[in-house]
Amino acid sequence: MREHGFEAQEPYRGVKYPWRCLCHGCGTITPPTFGSILAGQSGCRRCADLRAGAARREDPERAAASMREAGLEPLEPYTTTMTPWRCRCTTCGRTSTPTLSKIRSGRRCKYCARFGFDRAAPARVYVVTRAQHGAVKIGVAGALQRNDRIAQHRRLGWTLFYEHDVPTGDDALSVEQTILRRLRAAGHGVFLTAVQMPNGWTETFDAVRVTAAQLGEAIREHQSTPAPPEPLTCSSVLPPKFLGSSG
User: Fold this and answer.
1) Residue 215: CB partners within 8 Å, gap ≥ 6?
2) Nearest CA-CA partner of 22 in 14, 13, 32, 12
3) Which positions ≥6 away from 195 have C-beta within 8 Å?
4) pLDDT value at position 59?
5) Is pTM beyond 0.90 here?
């Protein structure tokens, strides 16, 4: 074991038993089997991860160049391709935190995107229902788009119950996510499946336990009352009637 960079921390019991050893490579305690060492394995998971990470590590200058080609100026040192990287868009001047992997897959500044949901433009928070499934859904959509998400839902048999205009897409997402967190804390899980609701199934609820009227009221209350600074718990989840039988 010493020849392979390990110092045993307990008596040897056999080739197939985990053997607590100190790895001289990274200084951690690891339990390889003597058989795995004889088979040519590294024996230390942390060292293996570090080696794999080093192999995947991108050259910082090349990483920054990729961001600049996408119109984003890095504002902090590069770490990894999967780590959010704070950058400033050279087109709109806003700051965002995309990952290098997403940028290389074709993503661009979330505020300048020509397609999809524009987080900087006026938006709406909406509530739709579908009697066939006994379901209700909360969602967000752009206020200036003609072929928007609500129209897509209508084509699938959903009915618009309520919509509320907000200044930006970021505001709409804040309203939606706050209400979703409160509902989850109150015990209301996802109601429909991805097959029943291909686009937005994670924001669906049982219309018996969470009614469309209650969702609409929650949206209005969020706009008139700032969100609480403390983590949301059952005791702070909207009015009691909003909790249903699981509150």
Assistant:
1) 127, 136, 138, 161, 162, 179, 205
2) 32
3) none
4) 81
5) no
